[in-house]
Amino acid sequence: MENYLNHNFHAVKSKHSSDEALQKWRSLCHVVKNPKRRFRFTANLSKRNEAAAMRRTNQEKLRIAVLVSKAAFQFIQGKFLILHARIKFYFIILGDYQVPDDVKEAGFDICADEAASLVEAHDIKKLKFHGGVESLAEKLKTSTTNGLSIDDEGLAVRQKLFGINKFAESPQRSFWVFVWEALHDMTLMILAMCAFVSLVVGIATEGWPKGAHDGLGIVASILLVVFVTATSDYRQSLQFRDLDKEKKKISIQVTRSGYRQKLSIYELLPGDIVHLSIGDQVPADGLFISGFAVSIDESSLTGESEPVMVSVENPWLMSGTKVQDGSCKMLVTTVGMRTQWGKLMATLSEGGDDETPLQVKLNGVATVIGKIGLFFAIVTFAVLVQKLLARKLLMGTQWSWAADDALELLEYFAIAVTIVVVAVPEGLPLAVTLSLAFAMKKMMNDKALVRHLAACETMGSATTICSDKTGTLTTNKMTVVKSCMCLSVKDVNKQGNSNSGIPDNALKILLQSIFSNTGGEVVNNKEGKREILGTPTEAAILEFGLSLGGDFQAERQASTVLRVEPFNSSKKRMGVVLKLPEGGVRAHCKGASEIILAACDKVINADGEVVDLKEGSLNHLKTTIDQFAGEALRTLCLAYIDLDKNVSAETPIPSSGYTCIGIVGIKDPVRPGVKESVAVCRSAGIMVRMVTGDNINTAKAIAKECGILRDDGIAIEGPDFREKSLEELDELVPKIQVMARSSPLDKHRLVKHLRTTFGEVVAVTGDGTNDAPALHEADIGLAMGIAGTEVAKESADVIILDDNFSTIVTVAKWGRSVYVNIQKFVQFQLTVNIVALMVNFTSACLTGNTPLTAVQLLWVNMIMDTLGALALATEPPNDALMKRIPVGRQGNFISKVMWRNIFGQSLYQFIVIWLLQTKGKSFYGLSGHNSDLILNTLIFNSFVFCQLFNEVNSREMEKLNVLNGILQNNVFVSVLSATAVFQIIIIEFLGTFASTSPLTMKQWYYSILTGFLSMPIAVILKMIPV
User: What's any one GO cellular component for it (predicted)?
Assistant: First the structure.
């Protein structure tokens, strides 16, 4: 079976499967009882293709509009004089625009539709008519400096007039929709027809109510199966709905009432002032106010891969696009369904997520077993009919057919159909979804948000984790603890006066560098307390600057910013060009110590004088960098260069000729529990590698502290890694435990080599925009929830909400739990399938009847399908899971251990039932007219209790102790208890409908004992090596 599955159902990957692969396995699933239910959690390829075609059409329309806008803008620049008259004429036409009365009454001078059309059409003439961005802000009753200043009543009025920033969603499907879908099961529909015929014939021949018992019994069983199935499916849909809401929670920096604060994108309103930076997704349509070097990726809207530069001249910012570089302030003009992104989303009917490899594989298992079951059902029906015909031939009544004969034929047909119901394990693929939904919900509590179903199961097979250092292995709470200013090394924490020993002129340049060349801000919050905004690194340096007696606002106002080059993980530096109060122009640069130091040819000495950077001073600084890095400190170098006064904002910041101001050493402590988590990964066969942009000595020190770098591993720098040939990489990659000074492309290359050359299942962490390719390439992309950009999160499969490495280990544990739980369920269900098929088939062949009726088989089907999945697929993980080696890429899903347990238990159950059929009457001393009914009841009861105890056995496939932790799993205990209670009710009180007879205490004792004996049998089986 494994070979068949690998050949036909192995093409679907955890990510980026082709449409051909997705279509192939669907075409192989011939025996499907209920396509609506079976394929509910698989991608709807036809809808997806329709959506893709519609998206392309919309993108093309928008692309043309943008290109026309650009052409018009160029024409405006080139033909200004001619256009001047035209603009006047255009203003006369636009002068007809009337502000609606309700908008005017609320105090606004522009309505929602007018504001929306402004950005949608990229209409520069209309923007000029409205007076530009500042004037438009006034019309929206806002300030480009302080943002909205409104109370709850004002918010409500604004929401009513301009709408809310939410997109239309498909309504939640009601419980009755799931009931309706469960009724679409073909075999249940056939059984319902059989029940109807049985009712008609039974009432006609035996009268009411006796003649209706068999038919009503089948109807009741069908309804029970339908409602239990629908309830389970409905609960799953609610879980996925909750998880979808979590995925869409995005916060953005906004200025309101003069204070910078974080808001959910769903709270944004026209008039809000939004702060955007690299990696952010533009949350609404709006206009550029101010910023530097802003490039926007509009491919999601227009399909164009070339980034668009946004500036005062080209101020259009559209919802759903992404900030590729730079930072800016934006005025929100349009929200929700009025935005381009909202309109695009409204026209699309998404086809859902790709199915997971495990879902596909289990669809294959269900198909194979379904075909076998269908064959046995047909043969069983043929044998039963042949026995009936043979009996009538012996009696000479072959030409005389009564209603009883018709009912008997109908019963045989119902039994054959019910065998198909039991044999086709429709619940197998859905058990994966149930287990994944359960795991995803629990992982949310453990600070991990799973964005794609497949990632949950793939993480269980992970063999390598490539982790960032900052914020993942460390706390991301940074402080400057050492500095080397003017060639003098000082301990920042211990010195009484922070600026002691730094000459005044050097201190002035240092503070200018710290407060001007930063992506952070120092602000006063609502309580009037000082607050530092920005990344932990920026916050640490700003705090250092404040401790030196600096004034952030005064320093920022003292000079004018001409150009900004934000930090980039490829360049590993950031820069700013300032126009100084005295008239000069100066560029400040900050970044990776050795890179910035290499760009310096001067240094400020102990007297505050600028001198040439001679070899002795250079060696002193390099030694200081190595010393700081050896103490696990993150080092940054600050430098400046005075430029020509005629430098323009378009002139790139120089790459050399700088004067070194100094070096800071930033402490970022290792997270508690990381060392233990790395040890857990090692014992689980998962290799942890650190991939960081930091100095190699800092990386090595942290890696040793975490237990990542060991004697058998090597640490390498990105530039060295890049120069290696493929042959050298084949030898080098398995030994790499630390990669320092790596670029995003280095990370991507490492991941690709691990996956393709060595067949590793790779999990990768990332937080920056440039990490997106590596996250996309990896089997499991893990984005950081706190430090991660929206671009990184969108490319990831799992978001680590607390940025903690220990959470990654928890995700791996849950992934393994999902995989093992599905294996347990498959083992349990295949055992029931085999026994039910063999019992009914052999009984039909040898005795001419079957011991298990249609109603009884439907109950067994519910035990093994919906209830079995609930019990076994929701087992929580245990620590023992992380002491096994990972399954990896080539592991067999149905293992030899599973086949041993399946065949062993099947053989025991088959022998027990066969002995009951042949020797049961003499063993129990049964006689009289109802002895056959009692015996069949005993067979049914023993069979059900065998399944109950085998369900307990299935909790562990190899361990002898299957009761460990059973009471902690409330779902398992509840399912087991409910099944036992319902079994008692069926036997003792529903005999008329279920064809059972009440049993004595002795008979109950032996039935339960028969089931219980499967537990010592399981112990014996587990001792057999495979």
Answer: plasma membrane
Residue carrying structure tokens 């937080």: 767
- CA 675 centroid distance within chain: 26
- CA 846 – CA 827 distance, rounded (Å): 28
Q: Are 649 and 563 in contact (CB under 8 A)?
A: yes
Residue type, 403: A
Distance CA 290, CA 80 (A): 24
The HSE-up count of residue 421 (CA atoms within 13 Å, CB side) is: 32
Beta-carbon count within 10 A of 1020 CB: 10
CA distance 211 to 386: 26
**Distance between CA atoms of residues 866 and 434, nearest Å:** 10
3-state class (DSSP) for residue 762: strand
Q: Which long-range contacts (CB under 8 A, 24 or more apart) does 491-496 make?
A: 492/544, 492/547
Alpha carbons 400 and 923: distance in angstroms, whole number:
39
Looking at residue 771, its amino acid is D
User: Where is pLDDT greater, at 841 or 620?
Assistant: 620
Tokens of 297: 């990726």
Residue of 272, 297, 325, 468 marked catalytic: 468
468 in active site: yes
The residues, any chain, with a CB within 8 Å of residue 161's CB and separated by 6 or more, are 102, 103, 106, 108, 111, 112
The SS3 call for residue 549 is coil
Give Cα 744 to chain centroid, integer Å. Answer: 22
Residue 551 CB partners (closer than 8 Å, separation 6+): none
Lowest mean pLDDT across 88-102, 180-194, 683-697, 756-770: 88-102
Q: Which two tokens stand for residue 407?
A: 């009912």
Nearest to 418 by CA among 971, 851, 922: 851
pLDDT of 189 over the 60 cut: yes
φ and ψ at 591, to 5 degrees?
A: 170, -155
CA-to-CA dists, residue 706 to 235, 479, 558, 700, angstroms: 41, 20, 45, 10
Q: Enter the pTM of the model.
A: 0.79
Higher pLDDT, 196 or 110: 110
Longest CA pairwise span in the chain (Å): 125
Residue 141 · residue 153 · CB < 8 Å: no
Residue 350 in this model has a pLDDT that exceeds 80: no
Residues 994 and 724: their CA atoms lie apart, in Å, by 73
pLDDT digits (tens, 9 = 90+) for 667-679: 999 989 999 999 9
Cβ-based burial of 220 (10 A; exposed 0-12, middle 13-18, buried ≥19):
middle
Q: Which helix (H) or strand (E) holds 748?
A: helix 744-756
Q: How far is CA 647 from CA 87, 105, 562, 587, 899, in A?
A: 34, 50, 9, 11, 77
**Which residues does residue 780 pair with via DSSP β-bridges, in sequence order?**
763
* Dist. CA 446–CA 454, nearest whole Å: 18
Can you give the pLDDT at residue 79? 45
Helix/strand number for the chain, H first, E second: 40, 26
Concatenated DSSP letters of 335-371: -GGGSHHHHHHHH-----PPPPHHHHHHHHHHHHHHH
* Residue in the block written with tokens 């530092």: 532
Strand partners, 499: none
**pLDDT at residue number 527:** 75
Work out the end-to-end distance of the chain between its first and last CA atoms, rounded to an integer number of angstroms. 17
One-letter amino acid at 284 equals A
Residue 1003: name the closest of 929, 926, 906 by CA: 926
Reduce the secondary structure of 185-241 to three states and give it as a string: CHHHHHHHHHHHHHHHHHHHHHCCCHHHHHHHHHHHHHHHHHHHHHHHHHHHHHHHH
> For residues 98 and 96, what is the distance between their CA atoms, to the nearest angstrom?
6
Cis peptide before 209 (omega within 30 of 0): yes
Return the DSSP state at 881. Answer: G
